[in-house]
Amino acid sequence: MFKKAYLFGLLVICLQSSAQIIRTKLPDSTSNWTKENKVGLDISQITFVNWNAGGNNSVSGLLKGQFIRTYNRENIHWKNELIARYGINKQEKQDARKTDDQFQINSTFGYRTDTISNWYYAGKFNFNTQFANGYAYPNTDLAISKPFAPAYTFLGIGAEYSRKDLNFNLYLSPLTQKTTMVFDQRLANQGAFGVEKAIYDEFGNLVKEGKNIRNETGILVTNQWKTEVYKNIVLEHRIALYTDYINNFGNIDVDWQLQLDMTVNQYVKANIGTHIVYDDDIKSKEEVNGMQVIKGPKIQLKQLLGVGLTYSF
User: pTM score, two decimals?
Assistant: First the structure.
């Protein structure tokens, strides 16, 4: 009996020791990934009843989301961002019209030689397109843009200066490939967004289809800065400048966004923003006597003002 009790006690001690060893070898649960998710909905509405000054009833909505995943480990920094926006407007006696449309992916990978430097060797990838067709209203018979018509990618290498304490980022790339994709043959045949247009004979017969892809190699400079200019008012600035080495070097494509976010409370926010785009390859289109007429490149301006709900998680 004593021998059995002794063996049983020894077995219990061994199991306790094994359990202690297992507990001390559990891996560290700390992750090098951080995440930030924001989704929001802005709505505006106006209704007139016996209003002497006149007016059309209307309702507008803008659904937006921003999702960020960042990896930091010693000398490595990798930031990935997804931005999605889609807005519509419905006025009395009119069909719903698109007011905003964006799908964008940004990814920047950086490596620095020491942990105190703010300079990184960096590679950058950017993809940008839209969700739905775009029209030169009131003409809705022929779309002037579609999903993947156009779509843009930027892929390059360079140097990045990053200051987390200032929310400041500067990226300089002497070697970036820009790819323009127009996967709608009608638009490609027109030479829309800078792709090579179709060739027709003297009788108007199609000889050669327009190209769907155009590649360029050039210089890309981007800058992003975010700061609190006043209590609960945050200013965010983003700009991208690109010029091609071969095609009209020195002619700069500009994509500049400026936005003020004003916090009312945890969930309600107001925002004011502007978006300026200039691309020499994008020709403007105008409605003349019911026909779409292609004009030269122009500065594109979009201004936004919204109040709505924002949820971060």
Answer: 0.84
The model's pLDDT over 100-129, given as tens digits with 9 standing for 90+, comes to: 999 999 999 999 999 899 999 999 999 999
Is 152 within 8 Å of 179 (Cβ atoms)? yes
> DSSP string covering 216-254, please?
EEEEEEEEEEEEEEETTEEEEEEEEEEEESSSSTT--EE
213 vs 66: CA distance, rounded Å: 28
Task: Quote the CA–CA distance of 269 and 255 in Å, as a whole number.
Answer: 25
Q: State how far the alpha carbon of 128 is from the alpha carbons of 11, 25, 103, 106, 172, in Å.
A: 64, 45, 6, 9, 20
C-alpha distances (whole Å) from 282 to each of 78, 117, 132, 236, 300 are 32, 40, 18, 26, 10
What DSSP designation does 149 have?
Answer: B
Q: How many alpha carbons fall within 13 Å on the CB side of residue 303? A: 0
Residue 23 — pLDDT band, cuts 50, 70, 90? very low
**So what's the pLDDT on residue 85?**
96
Delimit the domains of the chain by residue range.
41-312
Whether 236 contacts 179, CB under 8 Å: no
Please check whether residue 178 is in contact with residue 215, taking contact to mean a CB–CB distance below 8 angstroms: yes
φ and ψ of 138, to 5 deg? -90, 5
CATH for 41-312 is 2.40.230
Q: Where are the alpha helices (DSSP H) in the chain?
A: 2-24, 185-189
Closest among 167, 138, 179 to 225, alpha carbons compared: 167
